[in-house]
Amino acid sequence: MKKNSKLLSIVLAILLVVGGFSAPAFAHQTITPPQQILKDPIDNKVINKINVDNIYDNIDHLQQTPRVASTPEEYAAVQYVKEQFESYGYDAEIQEFEYFGYTAPHTVELAIDGTNVDTLPFTYTPSGDVQAELEYVGFATEEELEGVDLSGKIALVQRGSNSFAEKVVNASEKGAVGVIIFNNTSGVINGTLGTTDDRYVPVVSITQAQGEELVTKLENGEAVQASLQVVGASAGLRTSHNVIASKKPTNKKKDTGKVITVTSHHDSVPGAPGANDNASGTAMVLELARVFKNLPTDTELRFITFGAEELGLIGSRHYVANLPQAERDRIVANFNLDMVGSRDAGDLVVNSVDGEPNLVTDLTQASSLRLNGEPTRLGRSGSSDHVPFAEAGIPAALFIHSPLEPWYHTSEDTIDKISKEKLKDVAQIVSTAIYDYARFDNQNPKPKQQLKKQQLPEQFYYEESIN
């Protein structure tokens, strides 16, 4: 009796330290005895195989150059990921897909009466080089342009009333050879025309103050000449690739028929080496594939890196959309790794699309509770490759640090900003969460310690989207 009483006291003390869960809430958990939260020796089977230097070295290799979707640099990353999978003993598959893409211009210049003016292009503007007289046409609505001839002119247009695309089309159909749109509030316009259209002419933005100054000159009867140059913009079919490697269950007789996907994206934005975004996630997927290759599991583990994520989750949407329904039904969880190594970012968050718990978040919080004494914060985000899985009804979550690092989507996202400590922490949490479900001796797997949103202390629930 004394030994049991002493053990109970220790357990209660531990519970108070790791988060103050109420006794009634914890009492309803019947999966694992409370004392096993401290350390699970099964976790060590995975943790001891992780080599954080492998992750770091793969990040370093991938971040040597930006990996913009559909460029030779992205395809070199695809080949590298495939070769790494194969070096671990996998039969890796490259899944090619096409999409209609846009290449932003590399040169955009605007001069008014010979003086250079700061400007930004609109996404989907075509290239062009025009010099013409400026004419102010208000919001460029169909009504305002009725009976107006803009042949050979550059239209000066105010933001508001109708879409940017409608303004450009309306002006071009009246003969305009270019369009300048000025803001209706402070700041610059970083806008998009939404899609391509053969009726578009080169279009750029200027500030409200710049636009109003030009309007005053024109309304006073002054002639204003503009020179507009957009070079390098193009639109059309593009090709990118996903890379897939699967670890089948160890014993066919005990195969649960279920699949866990572990994913990342390998592309980056223009001008960014993408060490954290997202060479870090890709390198971690590679290391987890290596770690799990020879571990006994009763669940298929599918490791995937996606292309063209930065353009709108194109690779992951293609992958999920092309899965037969029976195959979708087999996938029980998606662990998506995106930006998991920056020294300058905040703490780890596990984000579902709706901010509600699911199998991935439950497994993750149970894992981090066992490893670190507190569960990873639960959050909400709909801006990475977990989204297509969630939309297909598959439990999915994004692993990311919050707040984001200041180098996000910049040329400063380089290897010197990567923290091995953070990489190790995420790799341990994710790998043990996966093994908690997929391990060979767990035929009816559930999280070791299920943690629901309402049971978590406030500091472990993150309400806002962070990416």
What can you see in these coordinates?
The chain is of the alpha/beta class and 467 residues long. Helix content is 31%, strand content 22%. The protein contains 13 helices and 16 strands. It has helices at 2-17, 23-27, 41-47, 52-62, 72-87, 164-173, 208-219, 275-292, 314-321, 325-330, 359-372, 387-391, 420-438, and strands spanning 93-103, 107-112, 115-117, 120-121, 128-136, 154-158, 178-182, 203-206, 225-231, 234-247, 259-265, 300-306, 331-337, 347-352, 377-380, 396-402. The chain has an 8-stranded mixed β-sheet, with helices on both faces. The chain has an 8-stranded mixed β-sheet with strand order 3-2-9-5-6-7-8-4, with helices on both faces. Helix 3 packs across helix 13, helix 4 (52-62) crosses helix 8 and helix 4 packs across helix 13. Mean pLDDT is 88; it is low at 1-38 and 452-467.
Write the layout of secondary structure elements.
Elements: H1 2-17, H2 23-27, H3 41-47, H4 52-62, H5 72-87, E1 93-103, E2 107-112, E3 115-117, E4 120-121, E5 128-136, E6 154-158, H6 164-173, E7 178-182, E8 203-206, H7 208-219, E9 225-231, E10 234-247, E11 259-265, H8 275-292, E12 300-306, H9 314-321, H10 325-330, E13 331-337, E14 347-352, H11 359-372, E15 377-380, H12 387-391, E16 396-402, H13 420-438
Parallel strand pairs: 5-6, 6-7, 7-8, 11-12, 11-13, 13-16, 14-15
Antiparallel strand pairs: 1-10, 2-3, 2-9, 4-8, 5-9, 10-12, 14-16
Helix pairs in contact: 3-13, 4-8, 4-13, 11-13
